[in-house]
Amino acid sequence: MTQAAETLPARRDRAGGTRSAKAVTRALLALTKPRIIELLLVTTLPTMLLARRGLPPAGLVAVTLLGGALAAASANTLNCYIDRDIDALMRRTSRRPLAAKAGRAVIRPAEALLSGIVLGVASTLLLGLLANWLAAALADSAILFYVFVYTLLLKRRTAANIVIGGAAGCFPVLVGWAAVTGRVSWPAIVLFAVVFFWTPPHFWALAMKFRDDYAAAQVPMLPVVAPAATVARKILYYSWAMVAATLALAPFAGWLYGCCAVGLGAWFLAEAGRLRGRLAAGSAPAPMRLFHLSIAYLALLFAAVAVTALLPWGRW
């Protein structure tokens, strides 16, 4: 086949992987970790509603959500680029495009790096020009923190990686608040704290399930370097801190939110306590139950924030 006859849909990479436009697009999308982006947006929109005490302009909502999604996509893509070596060693991540074995790779590392940078630039320009530059700067801070502090500095060096590095996932609430108000106020900081304390129980539960994966990749996640009982105890401590942070928002958000926060917090603490209790009794811990519950918990908590913001009778 001549070079002229080698059309894009039929081209094959030198390494042997199919290089169709559809395959490349699908691979680049996979690098952005869409499910994580969805979870981040779940925290952004309710924060905007609370900051406005109602519905912000539809255009501002669309710009902020799209800009936040692009920022998260940038950070996740750059994370996959940096971690492609250890992703290939873990079963959970071995199917990521850059972790594919030679001959099966659809995209090259340089292409992923360029995509991550372009996504970050697009996020900055979109938020800066159509929302405000504080929101853009906060989104950039999230990208830089996730890439340089978590991925490059902490992840492979310390068991505190997800505690400190997880702060990157807290920035969407600041971005949403800043997009509406042009500043960062106390309620936004409290919401930041909620997500900050939520992240270790959420991620450590997952890491307990995939402990062998992280051990094989020599990533010192807490379940790799500490006994399961210690992990469960710390999960419970952070869960209490998280619930306390949710209650600190009640004076601003309203009584309806406060009631929801108490009920949801009791639900989360009961599950975290059950995890610790099963380990103390010598039973299988079933950490994925807490992991899945943590996702539902965060979505329901922020749904309560949104409802309170939209219903005046739910306030104090």
Please provide a written account of the structure.
Helix 6 runs antiparallel to helix 8 (about 170-180) and helix 12 (about 230-250) packs antiparallel against helix 14. The protein has about 325 residues and is mostly helical. The longest helix has 26 residues, at about 255-280. The protein is flat. It is built from 15 helices and no strands. About 70% of the residues lie in helices and about 0% in strands.
Summarize the structure.
The chain is mainly alpha-helical and 316 residues long.
Query: What level of helicity do the residues show?
Result: over 70%
The count of domains is 2
What is the chain-wise order of helices and strands? HHHHHHHHHHHHHHH
Number of helices: 15
Global Rg:
21 Å
> How many E-type strands?
0
CATH class of the largest domain: Mainly Alpha
Distance between the termini: 73 Å
The CATH topology of the largest domain is given as Tetracycline Repressor, domain 2
CATH architecture assignment of the largest domain: Orthogonal Bundle
Q: What form results from the Cα inertia axes? A: flat
Strand content of the residues, in percent?
A: under 5%
Task: Give the low-pLDDT segments.
Answer: 1-17
Mean pLDDT: 91
The SS-based structural class is: mainly alpha
Major sheet description = none
